[in-house]
Design a protein that fits this description.
8-stranded parallel beta barrel, 11 helices, 18 strands, binds pyridoxal-5'-phosphate
Length: about 375
């Protein structure tokens, strides 16, 4: 476990803002995930969009993870890190024909979510095996922006189109995977099970099926009293479903957040404090260009004053320094803050650096990995 002391030392050595990842936490989460689903044959395709740092990818590769990529650039990075083509799945949204060609030429399995892409591949790459991303039309997920399988979502092929697809492809291409990804931050395992059930019901209609890819969505604890999703019950549900179907199917998962979120911290420094009409603002040397989740998804991230952790708590709005309303936390009680204190934003390992930008021409943070007591600068420049 990374202590506040280690975080402070890193902030002194490398400056702030800085992302810090705890390798031991990533390992712990990986093994936890693998063990929960160990009663049936499964593959873990890390959703690299959560954190694309090459050293972190290498760590996951060594643990045995495979990859789910969503762009040609992600595929290229995964290949660069040493993942084999056969271990990479590609789940694009509205891909261009160039992007489809790239995947085909590199022997990457595509999960197709649009019929135009299916038609293109059938015409240009007959005989190929593909996955179909299905939209089961049920709405789950922590926030509407991360609910990806409701009837009005752009993702996936509507169930009503499956008959047409089966008639249209005949035996010209093989559908060996059915895929769903219903959203992120899903609290209840039974919500995930309801979506998975829809996929299991399709198995009988796809004779070439080898994989069911159940995507991800596993909630992690953001608030101290948050409940983690009950993976054991979900695993039992999947095991029962597999026992019911008379076919050898490998289950694929695409966890992102579950593997890397809790391993990450964003350290920021307090530039100044201001008393407004009603609120006390703490302005830090960061903003939504470094961590957009609180502003984009209304996500809660615990914030700790690691320079002064044990003082009397006061109520603050923690804000960034962009020319925007970039608020990390509203009315948050935090141990008394003064200028130059270092604040640790927790649970920042997923969709933190990977969603960062250089908005306002500000630099991105450095990235540091702590592994077995050693500190590595893993910033990719
Ligand atoms: C297709 C797909 N798979 C997997 C994931 C990973 O989800 P999570 O980070 O919630 O595990 C995402 C994230 O949005 C996704 O779009």
């Amino acid at each position: 476990m990374i202590t506040s002391q280690i975080l402070l030392e890193i902030s002194q050595k490398y400056g702030t803002p800085v992302y810090i990842y705890d390798a031991s936490k990533i390992r712990e989460q990986y093994y936890k995930f693998q063990n929960v689903f160990s009663s049936f044959s499964h593959e873990i395709h890390y959703a690299m969009k959560a954190n694309e740092n090459i050293y972190l990818l290498d760590l996951l590769k060594k643990l045995g993870a495979k990859i789910d990529a969503v762009s040609t650039e992600e595929i290229q990075r995964a290949l660069q890190v040493g993942f084999l083509s056969k271990d990479i799945t590609y789940t694009p949204s509205f891909p261009s024909t160039n992007e489809l060609d790239f995947a085909m030429e590199n022997n990457i399995k595509i999960h197709i979510g649009e019929i135009y892409a299916l038609e293109y591949i059938m015409k240009n790459y007959p005989g190929i095996s593909l996955g179909l991303r299905i939209n089961p039309a049920n709405s789950i997920g922590g926030n509407q922006k991360i609910a990806t399988a409701h009837a009005d979502s752009k993702f996936g092929i509507p169930l009503k189109d499956l008959n047409y697809i089966r008639e249209f492809i005949q035996d010209k291409i093989k559908i060996d995977t059915l895929h769903i990804h219903t959203g992120s931050d899903v609290k209840s395992w039974s919500d995930l099970a309801n979506s998975a059930q829809i996929l299991f019901e399709q198995v009988k209609d796809f004779p070439d099926l080898k994989y069911l890819d159940l995507g991800s969505g596993f909630k992690v604890k953001y608030k101290p009293d948050d409940v983690e999703i009950d993976l054991e019950s979900y695993a039992k549900f999947i095991e029962n479903q597999l026992n019911k179907i008379n076919k050898k199917i490998v289950i694929q998962f695409e966890p992102g957040k579950f593997l890397v979120s809790e391993a990450g911290y964003l350290l920021v420094k307090v530039n100044g404090i201001k008393q407004g009409y009603r609120k006390k603002f703490v302005g830090v040397n960061s903003g939504f260009h470094h961590l957009i989740r609180p502003m984009y998804y209304d996500a809660y991230h615990e914030i700790v004053n690691i320079s002064n952790p044990q003082d009397i708590a006061e109520t603050y709005d923690i804000v960034g320094q962009l020319c925007e309303e970039d608020t990390f936390a509203y009315n948050r009680e935090i141990s008394k803050i003064k200028p130059d204190d270092v604040l640790a934003v927790k649970n920042a390992g997923a969709y933190g650096f990977s969603m960062s930008s250089e908005y306002n021409l500000r630099n991105k943070p450095k990235e540091i990995m702590v592994d077995d007591g050693k500190i590595y600068d893993i910033s990719v420049t």
